[in-house]
Amino acid sequence: MDDTFGQKKSLGCFAHQLNLVVQSAFNEAIGFKTILAKVKVIVTYIKSSIKASDLLRKFQLESGSREDQILKMKQECPTRWNSAFYMLERFILLSEIIARVLFQLDTAPQNLTSLEIKLIKESIYLLQPFEQITREISGEKFMTASKIIPIRTILKKHLESHIVMVTEEGKILQQRLKIEFYQRFLTVEKETLLGICTILDPRFKKVHFQSPVSAANAIGLIDEEMRNIIETQHRPTVVSDVSVQISTEENKIGLWEEHDAMVNTESNQYHDDEVNCEKRLYLQQPIIDCMQSPIEFWLKSPFPVLTKIALKYFTVVATSVASERLFSKAGNIITDH
């Protein structure tokens, strides 16, 4: 990507970075990692044992579940952190029945303690926003780069909220998540591309910027692009060579240079007024609902100059999920050769 477009025009995959945040936190939180391994052993045992699987089904039916409501264990996939989340979520949902299954079988692995069950419940609550975001950005539809800063702010507030973790392992996991998250996402506002995309998204604008300076810088860059567009639109057409070559003594001594300077000043002031007016009206409009389409907003907007810029930046996607899915379906990989 850098070789093709340059470093300033490329972004890392947000989905991949988020995956690394949670996986790294799992690896550093040794106590939690140990419990995760114990759950995986139990899940593997039940899924691989016909007798255990039959008991799991039997006990669910005895508990009042219908045949079409029978739940199976979910296994973790090492490359996707959220698969561990779903494994733990299903384990807690079936924990009482799992305890009965393990008690019935002599070869079964040891079940978790009540404190370990508590840790899993805490971790599920802590990880829920990460799972929700991961599920959203991993869907078929393209996620635009304008969502990265808002998502960063929301997850940051969740991690910094007054979540009381009772278990020591839960506290360590919470701390490791904060550390890994800050290392990868704390400075995203400084990314020029992300700042512009976010300001131009009518669902977000300046709401999620933690730094007023970063928001102001992004708006300043938008101003520059607006001026360039307006100046191009108002640039006078080139007159014929005959009229250009008319020369008088007054021209030679610069009689009209002062007039030209005044015209240029007036023109620049007009452009600045046009830029400020359109930008101010856009920023003063209410934030639109998150479920609305920003593209539809711009296609119907009364801001012609901003619309041109917005539609250009809304082609920037935040993840490589869709492209990776395309190549994995096709069975091809692009290389430098």
UniProtKB/TrEMBL annotation:
GO terms for cellular component: nucleus. Keywords: Metal-binding, Nucleus, Zinc, Zinc-finger. Residues 280-337 form the HAT C-terminal dimerisation domain. It is found in: Nucleus. This is Zinc finger BED domain-containing protein 4-like. InterPro entries: HATC_C_dom, RNaseH-like_sf, ZnF_BED_domain_contain. Its main location: nucleus. It comes from Aphis craccivora. GO terms for molecular function: protein dimerization activity; zinc ion binding.
